[in-house]
C-alpha cells in the first residue's frame, strides 16, 4: 500500500530539493504543489501587495484528494506531496513534515530570487512566526515532524526523514514547538518587522 508524506515549509526552505532526494531514497512519486496549482488553474486571483497568487484551498484540497485516490490504485511504495500549502491535505496523509530554517538563511536564499523586498520580509516573518507549523498543527495536532534544517545538507535531511518514518530515530527531537526563532539571541527579530513596516510606510507615502 502506498504511504503518503506531506512536506510543507516557508518558501526556499528546501521542500522541492528534499522531495527530489526522497524520490530516489524511497522510490517515491512526487506531487509538487507549485506545478499542480498551475496545471489545474487553481490560482484564483493575484494579491498585488504580497505579489503572490491566491489559491482556492477548498478546490486545491478537492483536486488533491482525487489525485491521491488515483495514486492509491498504483503499486508505488510512496507518494510525496510537497509545497507551501501541503497542510491542506495533511490530514489525509500518513506522515507530515514541516521544514524549518533559520530566518537569516531564509532571507539570504530569498534574496537570490527575483522577489521584492516586502515579499522577502513577509516570508521571513512567516518563518519567524512558524506559520507553516501552525497550519500543520491545525491539520494534524502534534503528529508531524518539525525539522530544523539549518546547517544540514539536502541528503542529511532526506535521510533524517527516512529514519523518522521507519522509526530508527526518536521523534522527540523534532516535536513541534521546539523550533523557536523568537527566543534566538542571534536574530534581530524587531529589526525584521521594523524594516518591513518602514518599507510599507514609504510605499504608502510615495
Ligand atoms: N539543505 C540545503 N542546503 C543548502 N541549500 C539548500 C538546501 N535545501 C535547499 N537549498 C537551496 O535553496 C534553494 C531553495 O530550495 P527549494 O527550491 O528546494 O526550496 P522550496 O522550499 O521548494 O521553495 P519554494 O517554496 O519556493 O518552492 C535552492 O537553490 C536549493 O538548492
Ligand atoms: Mg519548491
Annotate the secondary structure layout.
Layout: E1 3-9, H1 15-26, E2 28-32, H2 33-39, E3 43-47, E4 52-55, H3 57-72, E5 78-82, E6 95-100, H4 103-111, H5 117-129, H6 131-140, E7 145-148, H7 154-165, H8 189-205
Parallel strand pairs: 1-5, 1-6, 2-5, 6-7
Antiparallel strand pairs: 3-4
Structural summary, described in words:
It is a single chain. The chain has 206 residues and is of the alpha/beta class. Helices cover 47% and strands 17% of the residues. The chain has eight helices and seven strands, in the order βαβαββαββαααβαα. The strands form two sheets. Strands 2-5-1-6-7 form a five-stranded parallel β-sheet, sandwiched between helices. The chain is globular, with a radius of gyration of 17 Å. It starts with a strand and ends with a helix.
Number of domains: 1
Q: What ions, cofactors and ligands are bound?
A: adenosine-5'-triphosphate, magnesium ion
Task: State the CATH superfamily name.
Answer: P-loop containing nucleotide triphosphate hydrolases
Shape: globular
Amount of beta strand: 15-25%
Rg estimate, integer Å: 17 Å
The profile of the biggest β sheet is: 5 strands, parallel
Strand-pairing-aware structural class: alpha/beta
